Amino acid sequence: MAATLLQGEKVASEIKEGLKKDIEDLKAKGVPPHLVAVQVGENAAARVYIRQQQKACEEMDIEYEVKGLPESTTQGELLSFVEQLNRDDAVTGIILMMPIPEGIDARRVQIKISPDKDVEGMHPANMGRLVYGEMGLAPCTARAAVELLKSSGVELKGKEVVIVGHSEIVGKPLTLMLLSSQMESPTPTVCHIATNDLAFHTRRADIVFVAVGRPGLIQADMVKDGVIVIDIGINRVPVTDENGNPVLNEKGKPKKRVVGDVDFEGIKEKASFITPVPGGVGPMTTAMLLYNTVEAAKRVAARK
Ligand code: NAD
User: Fold this and answer.
1) Ligand 1: nearest atom to the Cα of 261
2) Which end of the chain has fewer CB within 10 Å, C or N?
3) Which of 209, 232, 259 has most ligand 1 atoms within 8 Å of its beta carbon, as the pocket-test mutant?
4) What's the pLDDT score for residue 34?
């Protein structure tokens, strides 16, 4: 039987609906959410994200501002700039656009952002709260993946969960989120590049999260019947015709499409729930960024 799709747009729109009243309340208190994206130098990928964020904020009537700094900006200048934004009460959230120029230590800048304005949830103070089981401002993609799983309504207590990928922004915080309940947590196992036998782990899992960035990494013979699969990967791959030849676009360049890390077609026949890519974790990540933006504004309001 084909799996039920966990559609990110649907859950994301419920989350966004729930934020509207909070945004109104913050405006009434004189603390409208105001997200500032800091971009150093020029980068096409960053521009795509900026457009997405801008659109999402506009839709929710949240002020979104891009502060562009020249490629020549030094680490010291960037740190002072972030400090100014930290002190500015009119700025309620800060997001550092990646990549930043070589020679600047991204982690040092990330740590400089006030934990209360850290809408990406990457500050050590916010990461540390996850250890205490507090979600507050948590990394958006990891939380998006957990919320999408929860939307299936499946009880997590005692389930075997395998997380493939142990990055700081996804795999590690995701693991802590799954362990947040004292008595009702599932049992997570984290796999990564150095895991000896990945299929051994994924085959015994009730729930598999994949955040690697390798199309087709998880095949249908690597999961059991009834598995729940949350595919976080985003990969742009060439579109091919029935003979396996690349299909060209109107400009004569190879046409691309977005896929996740799992063999969606094969696995959807075995799984009970699966997230599509695109349309699964992606839209939820944007919703979680908006959630964090509102949460950060509440913290700034509480400080006033
Ligand atoms: P990363 O490169 O920081 O980490 C990759 C992880 O995969 C590492 O833990 C590595 O050990 C593991 N890995 C690599 N090859 C492996 C293999 N063969 N077997 C098992 N594990 C392997 O990546 P990231 O930043 O966590 O992103 C992972 C994927 O998630 C990417 O495709 C990225 O585009 C996507 N992503 C999606 C969203 C979203 O909103 N949906 C957000 C962030 C990242």
Assistant:
1) 32
2) C
3) 232
4) 98
Geometric angle at alpha carbon 266, from 264 and 272, rounded to 5°: 75
Tell me the pLDDT tens digit for each residue of 6-36.
999 999 999 999 999 999 999 999 999 999 9
Same fold yes or no, 16-128+286-303 and 139-279: yes
- CATH architecture designation of domain 139-279: 3-Layer(aba) Sandwich (3.40)
Q: Residues 164-214: pLDDT tens digits?
A: 999 999 999 999 999 999 989 999 999 999 999 999 999 999 999 999 999
Report yes or no on whether pTM surpasses 0.85: yes
Residues contacting ligand 1 via CB (< 6 Å)? 141, 164-167, 169-171, 191-193, 195, 198, 211-214, 217, 232-235, 281-282, 285
CATH of domain 16-128+286-303: 3.40.50.10860
Nearest residue to 222 (alpha-carbon basis) of 246, 202, 242, 249: 202
Instruction: Provide the token pair at 115.
Output: 């934990």
Nearest Cα to 188, choosing from 170, 212, 217, 164? 164
